[in-house]
Design a protein that fits this description.
Length: about 150
């Protein structure tokens, strides 16, 4: 089983450091930049970089990931390739199978985009949930492909 919980913590959005205080403290190379470009110095005009004493590629690196969407797709493709090569860790509903200490096998949640069938094809989003009436109670019960 691999870590499929990759996510993007975008420094450009600055949602983790709204005031810029953390960045100014722990990345002193950026500390003299105005807040507008603090989390994205590669977008700063040359005059702003000069004033802050920064030289991209010298005192601070150039942007590493230029096309985030393409890199995300590469990552997803690699996860799917790994899952296809290790079908014995995929359950019949596309969820990861793991063996617990003591030998009991169980399933764990798997993101929909990584759920593959026995042929290695991604499960379609259709009919992931099937509901049937519960006998005499008027409530719905999940049947079939239940989330774990």
């Amino acid at each position: 089983m691999i870590d499929q919980w990759n996510f993007v913590m975008s420094p450009v959005a600055a949602s983790q450091d709204g005031t810029g205080g953390y960045t100014r403290k722990w990345v002193p190379e950026l500390s003299d930049l105005p807040k507008a470009v603090l989390h994205k110095p590669w977008e700063a005009p040359n005059a702003v970089l000069e004033t802050a004493g920064m030289v991209l590629g010298d005192t601070y690196p150039h942007l590493v990931v230029v096309d985030l969407k393409a890199e995300r797709q590469k990552s997803a493709d690699n996860v799917l390739a790994m899952r296809r090569q290790n079908q014995h860790f995929n359950g019949d509903r596309g969820y990861d199978l793991i063996t617990l200490p003591g030998g009991q096998e169980t399933v764990v949640y798997t993101k929909k985009e990584y759920r593959i069938d026995g042929e290695g094809d991604i499960f379609k989003a259709q009919s992931q949930k099937k509901y049937v009436k519960s006998a005499g109670k008027g409530k719905s019960k999940r049947k079939g492909n239940t989330a774990v």
